[in-house]
């Protein structure tokens, strides 16, 4: 997606250690117009990949919410985000999986209420980054627990050097990314 | 806002103890069309209140992100959400305030990078709930630290029985809410 790739090239910063900073338009400050265009682009690309009759978009808090909302808006279906802390409003019997924590090491729990995901649902899984694939694998586990059908995985940016695409290959669904980043010595390339 | 009030009446659940559950369309599952309409409604109402030349919409993760993104999209300006954990990409000198934690008691820290909020900014503060006002007061403190101008506060749902409007009165800005909920014995009223 050219607008996204151009933005990463002009504003993304490589901090070393595999860390790409895109806080100015994806992670901390969000560009709404770019975000809505990302949603429309996912919908167009999944349609071309033969994915149809989607009933829900699913992501995890926090940074997946914006691109998932934009995709759900373009599809006209609800968006559900997995919670990391169980709210007092969540009933027993929730779906539960674990993913590595980005902020403090260890693991974080991801939870979805059975009220909002069930066997009748056809799901697009949307997140901001495809890195190791462990977080996306955990969201896919929640979808599997609900017996919904996972139809495809869409990520805004793939860090190809982290190997997540191979990790998720067994899910056997289309994985669509809108920009790829790879390491190139002390810098990075975007394509 | 009639569509929102009708939705709370038909799908909101009062769990007792002052807890209103709206997880089906605001907090865990999100209705994108309603969310985008909420953003447009905030923009129209703040314009009528004389608020103009807004340059940023600010909220806090997690549940403020969707209505804040929709409002920023309708205004055509960036949205910034305060983080609860410092990411490794956030430089020193960040703005910091504390708010009560909804999930585990105690306090949660809210942080915004000085890269994305400065004295030139005119800010709308958007969140999902106006309850005690403590979280919104903490976000307002971040905005004050940045020396940006707070122009108005918009909340999707006001729990009038928690008194947040009085708590925030000293900020002396318009506070616009799209639905109000009050207790009525073992039930609640929406207006």
SSE inventory with pairings:
2 copies of one chain form a homodimer.
Chain A (H helix, E strand, L loop, with lengths): L1 H10 L1 E2 L5 E2 L1 H5 L1 E2 L1 H17 L7 E5 L4 H11 L3 E4 L12 E6 L6 E6 L9 E9 L3 H12 L3 E11 L4 H4 L7 E10 L2 E4 L1
Parallel strand pairs in A: 4-5, 4-8, 8-9, 9-10
Antiparallel strand pairs in A: 1-2, 6-7, 10-11
Helix pairs in contact in A: 3-4
Written account of the structure:
The structure is a homodimer of 191-residue chains. With 191 residues, chain A is of the alpha/beta class. Chain A has one domain: Rossmann fold (3-Layer(aba) Sandwich). Helices cover 31% and strands 32% of the residues of chain A. Chain A contains 6 helices and 11 strands. Chain A has helices at 2-11, 23-27, 32-48, 65-75, 134-145, 164-167, and strands spanning 13-14, 20-21, 29-30, 56-60, 79-82, 95-100, 107-112, 122-130, 149-159, 175-184, 187-190. A 6-stranded mixed β-sheet of chain A has the order 5-4-8-9-10-11, sandwiched between helices. A two-stranded antiparallel sheet of chain A has the order 1-2. The first copy, chain A, has a two-stranded antiparallel ribbon with strand order 6-7. In chain A, strand 6 and strand 7 (107-112) form a beta hairpin. In chain A, helix 3 (32-48) packs across helix 4. The longest helix of chain A is centred in the N-terminal third of the chain and has 17 residues, at 32-48. Chain A starts with a helix and ends with a strand. The relative contact order of chain A is 0.18. The mean pLDDT of chain A is 96. Strand 3 (29-30) of chain A pairs antiparallel with strand 5 of chain B, so a sheet runs across the interface.
């Amino acid at each position: 997606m050219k607008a996204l790739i151009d933005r990463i090239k002009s504003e993304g910063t490589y901090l070393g250690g595999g860390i790409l900073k895109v806080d100015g338009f994806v992670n901390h400050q969000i560009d709404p117009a770019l975000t809505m265009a990302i949603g429309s682009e996912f919908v167009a690309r999944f349609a071309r990949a033969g994915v149809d009759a989607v009933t829900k978009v699913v992501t995890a808090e926090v940074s997946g919410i914006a691109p998932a909302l934009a995709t759900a808006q373009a599809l006209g279906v609800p968006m559900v985000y997995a919670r990391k802390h169980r709210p007092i409003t969540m009933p027993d019997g929730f779906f539960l999986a674990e993913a590595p924590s980005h902020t403090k090491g260890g693991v974080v729990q991801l939870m979805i209420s059975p009220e909002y995901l069930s066997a009748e649902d056809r799901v697009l899984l949307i997140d901001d980054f495809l890195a190791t694939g462990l977080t996306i694998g955990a969201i896919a586990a929640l979808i599997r627990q609900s017996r919904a059908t996972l139809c495809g995985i869409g990520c805004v940016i793939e860090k190809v050097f982290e190997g997540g695409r191979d990790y998720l290959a067994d899910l056997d669904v289309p994985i669509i990314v809108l920009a790829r980043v790879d390491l190139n010595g002390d810098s990075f390339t975007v394509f």
